Queue: 2 jobs
Job 1
Amino acid sequence: VINLESVTKTYHVGVGVTALDGVDLVVPDGQYVAIMGSSGSGKSTMLNLLGCLDRPSAGKYYLGGDDVSTFSDNRLSEIRNTRLGFVFQSFNLISWMTVTQNIEIPLFYKGVSRSQRRRKSAELGDMVGLGDRLDHRPSQLSGGQMQRVAIARALSNDPMVLLADEPTGNLDTHTGEEIMEVFTDLNARGRTILMVTHESHIAAHADRVITLKDGHIESDIMDYNV
Amino acid sequence: VINLESVTKTYHVGVGVTALDGVDLVVPDGQYVAIMGSSGSGKSTMLNLLGCLDRPSAGKYYLGGDDVSTFSDNRLSEIRNTRLGFVFQSFNLISWMTVTQNIEIPLFYKGVSRSQRRRKSAELGDMVGLGDRLDHRPSQLSGGQMQRVAIARALSNDPMVLLADEPTGNLDTHTGEEIMEVFTDLNARGRTILMVTHESHIAAHADRVITLKDGHIESDIMDYNV
Ligand SMILES: Nc1ncnc2c1ncn2[C@@H]1O[C@H](COP(=O)(O)OP(=O)(O)OP(=O)(O)O)[C@@H](O)[C@H]1O
Ligand SMILES: Nc1ncnc2c1ncn2[C@@H]1O[C@H](COP(=O)(O)OP(=O)(O)OP(=O)(O)O)[C@@H](O)[C@H]1O
Ligand SMILES: [Mg+2]
Ligand SMILES: [Mg+2]
């Protein structure tokens, strides 16, 4: 379970920017949450905190009941690499590696054999429609293809929690729906998903929609129609 | 006027990728065109060719009646910097420069004075809602804020032709509509706009919607309801 308690994040640029302001949030295991809100409202900041890529300026983050601020860097790194999957808003692919090599990076931490990594990576590449692009490097891909490599990479270690920042922002509607099927399958197997999106037909796939405004939660709605 | 005649673009990776396949296109001055199509269908490739950032493998590109393949690199550079505005799918901001400095780059080519550049840049920053972020650098901005810097930069030299690749892909619906008002004003002043988008409520602002599929034009529809 994920639990943010009075979490604040302030950046010290100019007069100071409060990106998150006293946020409280409880996400039970296996929930599928969509996070919406205006550009600059704090969505990526929240996702980065949840993904242990950054620490709060104030407040507490409990992951599975443990206070994340007490974890060593080694423990945080191990959690990020084995239990979390992260799709970045700007993809963050490794430019000198191929599609296959980019996808398989999280699998190194799981101690998986080379042939198993290659098989898993090709399987995921295929699942996101990149079966014929596996040897391309990021500069030889379209924007939506790069986004799909980032998605496949985030799924490769079969994460307990998938954190996805605008995963369909560069995808046509049809390809976006194919990715939604992949996420729905993951969630059906009990995995927790937190997905930032600005597209309501994408948010419609989630069980719950949280809307941020100026760094706090403006609304938090469970979908009773599922 | 823009005129593509049998334009083909092939990349030599693996067995070879034909990104555009014998495309014919005529765009009259002042038209507002939306380009849609699946991820990987050739939209960015087409926009890059139109923006003189790349050359066709075969076929001709006429800009204002002149065959672009006969232009020197200096002339192409001058056209790109003074007559075209380009919003890249991955923004391509300069990481060590502030928002203001990034926006004003095209104005150097117009021989505009420093105080005029600063005033124009602040004005545009304000217009896209970044008035309080002018001294931030790209790493200190949200994804949608970076996208808006790229948009402001593309508009700073008041281009005759605006080429925009998924300009609202990282923007919430409301901010996206604010950007659409800016584009509509530009078009009302007689400027040509070619905009790649996967969102139909964004494409609805254009006069004409072209859909690409596997490197050719699948449909080309004028909107008679405007
Ligand atoms: N430098 C390159 N080398 C090899 N193949 C490339 C290169 N750039 C693009 N491609 C391929 O050309 C095809 C068209 O790419 P393009 O970027 O034009 O697609 P797109 O329609 O913009 O897609 P998206 O909606 O995902 O941004 C894709 O299949 C892509 O893999
Ligand atoms: N490193 C930083 N330094 C200073 N300010 C920052 C930094 N990163 C983000 N910000 C600011 O914090 C606020 C929240 O940013 P965040 O990236 O969380 O927004 P967002 O909701 O993801 O926006 P978008 O929808 O545009 O991606 C923004 O106003 C942004 O300018
Ligand atoms: Mg963001
Ligand atoms: Mg593209």
Job 2
Amino acid sequence: FLGKKTIDEGLLDELEGLLFAADLGVKTSDQLLEGVRQGLKKGELKEPDKVKEFIKQEMLRILRSGEKPLFIDFSQTRPFVFMVVGVNGTGKTTTIAKIAHQYSSQGRKVLIGAADTFRAAAVEQLEVWANRVGADLIRQSRGSDPSAVAFDSIHAAKAREIDLVFIDTAGRLHTKVNLMEELKKVKRIIGRECPGAPHEILLVLDATTGQNAISQAKLFNEVIGVTGIALTKLDGTAKGGIIVGITEELKIPIRYIGVGEGIDDLKEFNANEFVQALF
Amino acid sequence: SLTSKLDAIFKKLKGRGKLTEQNIKEALKEVRMALLEADVNFKVVKDFIQSVEQRAIGQEVMASLTPAQQVIKIVRDELTSLMGHGEERINLSGSPPVPIMLVGLHGCGKTTTAGKLARYFQERKKRPYLIPADVYRPAAIEQLQRLGQELGVDFYRPEPSQAPLDICLKGREFALRGGYDLMVIDTAGRLHIDEALMLELREIKASLKPKEILLVADAMTGQDAVNIAKNFNERLGIDGVILTKMDGDARGGAALSIRAVTQKPIKFIGVGEKLDALEVFHPDRMASRILG
Ligand SMILES: Nc1nc2c(ncn2[C@@H]2O[C@H](COP(=O)(O)OP(=O)(O)OP(=O)(O)O)[C@@H](O)[C@H]2O)c(=O)[nH]1
Ligand SMILES: Nc1nc2c(ncn2[C@@H]2O[C@H](COP(=O)(O)OP(=O)(O)OP(=O)(O)O)[C@@H](O)[C@H]2O)c(=O)[nH]1
Ligand SMILES: [Mg+2]
Ligand SMILES: [Mg+2]
């Protein structure tokens, strides 16, 4: 590993570089390296290979706790309602299409609520995807209240005996208080029209994001409560290591990873594969 | 803040008599931490700290009554000069319609920025023309056309299944005939490691010879910023950068990473979702933001 025969500061530096390059961030990298230093002091880690293994196991321990795929019991919960949120451009709309496709291919009736009433051609983009996956689409005119779209979507879902509803929301920076308030209202309306809903509040994070992903996850969680995370664009060169610190701190299940722009480019999160890819 | 951290360090150190080189190195560890927390690339941070160390270990800091302030000043000056000069203009030389091409990863804000740039030039009494060359993303063409409609800026209407290169070539003909001053080409988001799509950009570049190829990059990009910028610059060649979503709370260390690896100027920053949310880049403000 890293061509080293002994453990020295050079090895620790190289390890640190590896962790940073994978976007684990300062806090998590320090935490892992401190664990290594403790292990070295106690004489528990004697060879470089042991050090690498220690770090891997630590990451696995953290990430396995986040390896919780979504199991929907439609006999208990129908319609099952997803509310999909996140900052601008992370892949919310595309991820909805991918998940919808999975359930639609299993014979489930899917409805998508186009509650991004702000961005140019947001509804049109979703319309193309809804047609491709065979999902119903609920929309209103541009500029209308997203909560009104959510309201319509829930009522249409009940009337049409829909199994699965996705509410697509506009991208928004977590620091914009008024936009976060808007999201609270959408959630409240969904819950009012369908008690227990939204059953999954999915935060979509972009794997190329740095440590700002931690503030995103914290704030979205604080404001509306996040029950699942989708980490997109892992088909690039970014490793998405920021998810380690997020999982450790917030304990939110990582439901999916996005690995491309196509309808099938969605996988369930697997801690082992993720950690292997980091090394 | 970094300043208060350094103040605290130097207060503690001065109590022990004269400052040593080792003391300065300790202080620079805090600077290194600040940069890493700002998402500056790990290797770029290493190089930066080494170059700053040279100046910081000089007499002026060691003998200073306010070493913390001296170190901060050296770091800030160095960072600001690395950030470039600010006020970089968009190159509109050459016969109209001058081609400006926007490239970058998925979702970084290219289409929105194309609209913003069109508005920017419209404000300056130029006639921009928009060319929607993203044929992959659902409703991408429509998205750019809607922005054009909103601004009263004209745009090319691609045929169904028209290829991106042809869209640019035909779009240019329209722009030429219509007497427009410049054309802003919006391209599809793509990975820097996608050979076929990088080739597509090179073909558009070869045919249209854009005066400006601008890399649009998300201010919250992490360590990968070096890979992205390096690859786009080496495989395509960029003339400048636009850093988007600066209205968020990302420290924006990606800016330093991109500058370090390409030496190309950051010309604008995106500061919101509306079409008027485009500002000229200020290197000193960026330096302060990154240092935190
Ligand atoms: N390579 C890659 N691209 C992706 C992935 N997921 C989404 N994208 C792309 O990212 C871009 C943005 O996707 P959208 O679905 O529009 O993102 P969004 O979060 O809905 O964006 P806003 O609604 O504007 O906030 C598109 O070009 C998608 O094709 C992924 O897993 N890999
Ligand atoms: N807050 C904020 N949002 C921005 C900014 N620039 C773009 N956006 C938003 O980011 C999201 C993505 O913008 P697009 O213009 O669709 O990005 P793109 O690069 O064209 O995406 P692809 O074509 O899929 O690669 C949208 O929600 C935009 O409104 C900015 O400066 N600030
Ligand atoms: Mg969307
Ligand atoms: Mg676009």
